[in-house]
Amino acid sequence: ALSKIEPVFSAAGFTYQQISKEAKPLYHAASVMVCNYLAVLMHAGLKTAEAAGLNHTTFWQAVQPLLGATINNIGTEGAVAALSGPLVRGDSDTVSSHLSALEDAAPELIQLYKSLGLQGLSMVDERGELADDKLKALKSLLSDGLDVTQD
User: Fold this and answer.
1) Cα 4 to Cα 10, 18, 42, distances in angstroms
2) Where does residue 115 rank: exposed (0-12), middle (13-18), buried (19+ CB within 10 A)?
3) What is the pTM of this model?
4) Contact residues for 45 (Cβ-Cβ < 8 A; gap 6+)
5) What's the CA gap between 62 and 87, in Å, rounded?
6) Could you read off the pLDDT of 72-125 as tens digits, one per residue?
7) What is the pLDDT of residues 48-67, one digit of tens each?
8) CB-based contact 145:114 (threshold 8 Å)
9) Which three-class secondary structure string do you get for 101-118?
10) Would residue 113 be called left, alpha or beta, if left means φ above 0 and alpha means ψ between -120 and 50 degrees?
């Protein structure tokens, strides 16, 4: 099948890469994370904005430039370099205020916020720019109440 489809891809100008049969579940999981779970994340963010009293359409229009810049930065710099916000700054006070606000307005989103925060914190750690005490404080704050498996 590859011998028949490769010329079609090439003629259409598509970039393609062959992967092993064993890698297909990981490829699919990666696609689910960057596409399907992005929709889940956008839904959570929109729900949080609406809980803050923001109009869905107005908020969506306001974040469009931020989303575009983030996606562009990920494509050009990589996700680790593109990460910004309170985790990169080591701002435990802001993260704590987010968690308190979510507790009141959307408690079902706290685990998502904390789980994504911990993943983000590992990216911050990879950058090597944040002091260990700030990393530890953020990790403690985000791990609290989560079943976090230790490596």
Assistant:
1) 11, 14, 39
2) middle
3) 0.86
4) 63
5) 22
6) 999 999 999 999 999 999 999 999 999 999 999 999 999 999 999 999 999 999
7) 999 999 999 999 999 999 99
8) yes
9) HHHHHCHHHHHHHHHHHH
10) alpha
